[in-house]
Design goal:
By secondary structure, the protein is mainly alpha-helical. The protein folds into 2 domains: about 120 residues; about 110 residues. The chain is about 75% helix and about 0% strand. It contains 8 helices and no strands.
Length: about 240
């Protein structure tokens, strides 16, 4: 969500820059106060509403796994509503500019705070789930879980070797995910994490298992893997540390 807010604000501010360039010939000879109200105020407004729309879409993607056009609809409507509210108050340009400059940073500050708290809760809770799943794989209780039952249901569709690779892929993905969360939490408290020499071989094995399972098998096992945007982000961060 924080990344979405930064990118959204950059896009909105870039649009405002192009828009203000189009007003250069219309506002020639005007004083600095007009340009502050016309240029700076609308730039903050455009950046703010674009950032808000982006963060709402990111929240829906992470928390509810929405896809398609409905993922962007709530954020788009929120941005349109705020933009319309700004335009309605143009009869008082000073008030609308002050509201945009003061109000939107407060909203975005709340969004960034919520994003940070949400990420911390997710790291702790998901790490516990990963550790619990790793301890259950290979035990007698694993077949009683939903993951184990799902893999057992695939025995008629895939040969034993492929199903074994699926289980290995699941275990390896959870292990890498747990390592990534642990590293992020250690860095959060200021501890320096040395590079792990085994990570490169783990990612190479992960790539080999995906190729060995094949496209059809990956479609079948993908619901079990950690493939949310946050999971992919943390694994990407961990992979960057390998290079």
């Amino acid at each position: 969500m924080a990344d979405s807010a930064i990118c959204g604000f950059a896009v909105g501010a870039g649009f405002a820059l192009i828009e203000n360039l189009s007003y250069l010939h219309l506002l020639q000879g005007k004083g600095a106060s007009i340009w502050i109200l016309r240029g700076f105020g609308t730039a903050v407004m455009h950046g703010g509403v674009a950032a808000l729309g982006a963060t709402i879409s990111a929240f829906l993607l992470e928390s509810r796994q929405w896809r398609g056009l409905r993922l962007f609809t709530p954020g788009f409507l929120a941005a349109v509503a705020l933009h319309s509210l700004f335009n309605q108050s143009l009869q008082s340009p000073v008030a609308s500019t002050v509201a945009a400059v003061v109000g939107l940073p407060v909203i975005l500050g709340f969004v960034l705070y919520f994003s940070e708290q949400s990420l911390r809760r997710w790291l702790g809770g998901k790490l516990d789930q990963d550790i619990e799943m790793l301890s259950m794989i290979g035990s007698q209780e694993f077949q009683q879980t939903r993951v184990g039952a799902y893999l057992m249901n695939l025995q008629e569709a895939f040969p034993p070797a492929v199903r074994g690779d699926m289980l290995s892929l699941l275990q390896l993905t959870i292990e890498i995910s747990a390592r990534a969360k642990s590293e992020l939490m250690l860095r959060e408290i200021g501890m320096e994490v040395p590079p792990d020499p085994d990570l490169e071989s783990l990612f190479a094995e992960l790539k080999y298992l995906e190729k060995s399972i094949g496209p059809t098998g990956m479609l079948a096992v993908r619901p079990l893997l950690s493939q949310t945007p946050r999971d992919l982000w943390e694994m990407h961060r961990l992979k960057q540390g390998v290079r």
